[in-house]
Amino acid sequence: MKLTGAQIVINVLQEQGVDTVFGYPGGAVLTIYDELYKASDKIKHYITCHEQGAAHAADGFARATGKTGVVFATSGPGATNLVTGLATAYLDSTPIVAITGNVACSLIGRDSFQEVDTCGVTMPITKHNYIVKDVKKLAGVIREAFAIAQSGRPGPVLIDIPKDVQIDICEYEPAGKVEKDKPKAPSQKTLERAVELINKAKKPFIYFGGGVVISDASKELIAFAEKIGSPMGSSMMGLSAVPSDHPLFLGMTGMHGRFAASKALSKSDLLIAVGTRFSDRATGNIKEFSKNRKVLHIDIDPAEIGKNIPAYHALVGDVKLALAALLEADLNESPEEWHQEVEEIKARPDSRLGMDASRLNPEMILEAVRKRTADDTPVATDVGQHQMWTAQYYRFSNPRTFITSGGLGTMGFGMGSAMGAAIGTGKKTVLITSDGSFHMNMNEMVTAVTNKLPLVVILLDNDTLGMVRQWQTMFYESRYSQTSLHRKTDYVKLAEAFGAKGLRLEDKADLDKVLDEAFATDGPVLVHALIDTDEMVLPMIPPGGSIKDIVIKN
Q: pLDDT tens, 424-461?
C-alpha cells in the first residue's frame, strides 16, 4: 500500500509497540502530528511545556519500564531544546528514539526559518542519528533506530525528517516488531580465567552499577554474591538493583558513599566490577583506588574496559548472561576471616549515618516518605544534595525504582522524568527535588496537573544551591558566591496556581500529618519542606581523594 512519510512514521511506531509519545508540535512536524491525531486511539501523546521536559519524560518512562521512550520535536529550537535530555539519556544509557522535523530538503543549508543542523548538533550525544531525505528509506530507518537504541549498551537515537519527505508517497510494507541484537555471553576462555581469579581471592568485593539494572540482572547478581559470600557496594546508578536491606549490601560507594562500603572496597584484593564505568566521582584518586587489588571488569561495552581503571581481566558481554555463566561454575566461598573483617567495619561508628534529630532534616523526611511508599514506587530526583540524601537514606527494594541523572548530573531532570515514570508504570510516583532544581523546570507541574498524574513532589528548600555551597564551605573558605538564592517563591501558592495541592512543612512535629495528607491526595501534590541551609551531605571523599581523606562529620 502507498503511504505518505508521516503515515509511515505513525505506522512503524505502532509496529514497534509504541503506545506513548512525548513531545511538542511545530511547523516542521505538523504533518506527522496530523497523522498522530488520526491514530490517537492507538498512541497517546503527552504535550509538555518545553521540549526538554518531553525528552526527560521519555527518559523516565524508559528507565521505569524498560521500554524505549519516544519524543517528537519540531525543527530549529524544538530540536535543540532536546539536547540536554538526549545527553542525559546518552550518559546513563537510556533507550530513546527522538523524531524531529526539518525544513524541506531544498531549503537545507540556506539558513531557512527554524533550520539547524540537528544531526550535527546531536551526533556526539546519540548512539546514532539520521537525516532521511528519501521517503523510501524512512520505514527501514525507524525500525533500525529502535534496534540500535535497545541493543548492546542502550542509548538515544535521533531521526531528522524534512517536511517534504513527510508528504512524499511510497510503497509501504508492514513488518513486525524489530528485535534488539541477541545479547552475547563472554567467551568460555575468559570465563574460565575469571573463575580462577575469583577462587584465588581472599577478599572479594562486588562493585556494581547501572548495567545491572539495564540488563535485568538483579537476581543473578544477588545469587552470585551469595554464592561466593562477597560484600557488595554500588555506584549511584546501581542503586535499586539490590534491596537496601540485603545483608551483603553495604551501600553506595564513592564521593558520598557509605563509609562501610568504601572501606570494605579499599580492603579488598579482588574488585569484581559489574556493569559500571568507574566514573571519577566513584573512584576518586585512581592510584589509591586501584592499589593492592586486581580488577575483574564485567561489562557489555568493550570501550569501558580499562578506560578509567586498569582491568586485570575482563568479561565482555551481557551482564545477565555473564553472571548466569559464573553461577554455573564451581566457585569457592570467600574466607570467614573476610566476613568477620567486613562485620567489624560495619560495626564502626563511622559506618552510621545520622543528622541532627532536634530539627526537621532530610533523613527523617526521606524515612517518613519511604514508610508511605510501596516497594515498586518509582522515586525520581533532580540533582544536588537532595539527590545524594535520597541515595543515602531512601531504602530501595525493587529494580528500576530509582530514576536520577548520574552521568550528566542534570538539574531540572526530575519533573519530566517523574512524569514519564508515572505514565509508564501507572503508579504513584515520588519526586525528591530542591528549590534550585525545581525552579529549572517547574513549568512541567502544569503537565502533571493536566494529566492528573499521581505525583508527590517533596521539595527540600534550604534557600541555597546546596551542593555548590557545601563545596564553597569546604574548599573555598565559605565564600558563598552566587549560591544564596533568597527567593520569595511561595511554593504552596505556586502549586495551587498550577492546579495542584500545595502543603507546607517546617516543623518535624507536623511531618506525619503533612505526608499523610500528601499521599492521600489524588493527582499532583507539592510538599514544601524547609530544611537548614547548612545541612551537608556526609560522608564525603574530596575530589581526587581516597578513603584516607573521607570527611565523616562537619
A: 999 999 999 999 999 999 999 999 999 999 999 999 99
We find that the CATH architecture of domain 362-530 is 3-Layer(aba) Sandwich (3.40)
Q: Does 183 have pLDDT greater than 80?
A: yes
**Class for the domain spanning 2-171:** alpha beta
Which residue is associated with the grid cell 512524569? 419
Task: Name the residues annotated as catalytic.
Answer: 51, 113-114, 163, 467
The reported pLDDT for the residue numbered 472 is: 97
Q: What is the C-alpha separation between 288 and 417, in angstroms, rounded?
A: 36
| pTM for the whole structure | 0.97
Helix, strand and coil content of the chain, in percent to the nearest 5, comes to 45, 20, 40
**Calpha distance 173→171 (Å, rounded):** 7
What dihedral angle (degrees, nearest 10) is formed by the CA atoms of 374, 376, 380, 386?
Answer: 50
Measured between alpha carbons, how far is 28 from 45 in angstroms, rounded to an integer? 17
Mean predicted lDDT score pLDDT of the chain: 97
Averaged pLDDT for residues 120-128: 98
Q: Give the pLDDT band (50/70/90) at residue 353.
A: confident
Whether 2-171 shares its CATH topology with 188-351 is answered: yes
The structural architecture, per CATH, of the domain 188-351 is 3-Layer(aba) Sandwich (3.40)
Nine-digit cell string for 134: 528519501
Question: CB 229: neighbour CB atoms within 10 A?
Answer: 17
Q: Is the pLDDT of residue 381 over 80?
A: yes
**Domain boundaries of the chain, sorted by first residue:** 2-171, 188-351, 362-530
How far is the CA of 234 from the CAs of 181, 268, 379, 431, 465, in angstroms? 27, 15, 17, 22, 26
- The full 3-state SS of 386-405, as one line of letters, equals HHHHHHHHCCCCCCCCEECC
CB atoms within 10 A of CB 385: 25
| 539 within 8 A of 259, measured Cβ to Cβ | yes
Write down the H helix ranges in 348-444.
362-371, 385-393, 413-425, 435-441
- Strand 455-461: give its sheet, edge to edge: 402-403, 379-381, 429-434, 455-461, 525-530, 501-505
